[in-house]
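tool_call: predict_structure(chain=1)
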Amino acid sequence: MTFEDRGYSVCKVDTATDELRLFLTDPGGTPYGTFDAVDARLAGQGKQLAFATNAGMYHEDRSPVGHYRENGQEVQRVIANAGPGNFGLLPNGVFCFGPGRAEVIETKAYQQRDVADCPNATQSGPMLVIDGDLHPRFLEDSTSRYIRN
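tool_result:
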């Protein structure tokens, strides 16, 4: 789709019928690192990757910067405090999903929830949109022009 003369890819997931998953490491514990690696793993299961995007923020070794929970197993704890760089620009948020649901939750609100409510979660920051408005710290003359997804 196009908005204000800029092109965007929009992918829709029906959480009632589509399979939404996180992929961090293969069964041997090696980070996938590429969408092709994930697709190859799925091909071995008779499946095919429909679309993929990076979910969360990662260190150079591909370990999660913030909270990461896959199939009920926590890999990285929640980081709720302000810090350097984009990740530490509060508020940040957690993408949480499970059977029949998916949502983005502000990190401090997420911490008040029962973890079983979010069997899959990945934290990123800063939140881009908060209650329908752009994050108040996004400045027109900012030098940070990274593409977001």
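agent: The chain has two helices and nine strands. Proceeding to next step.
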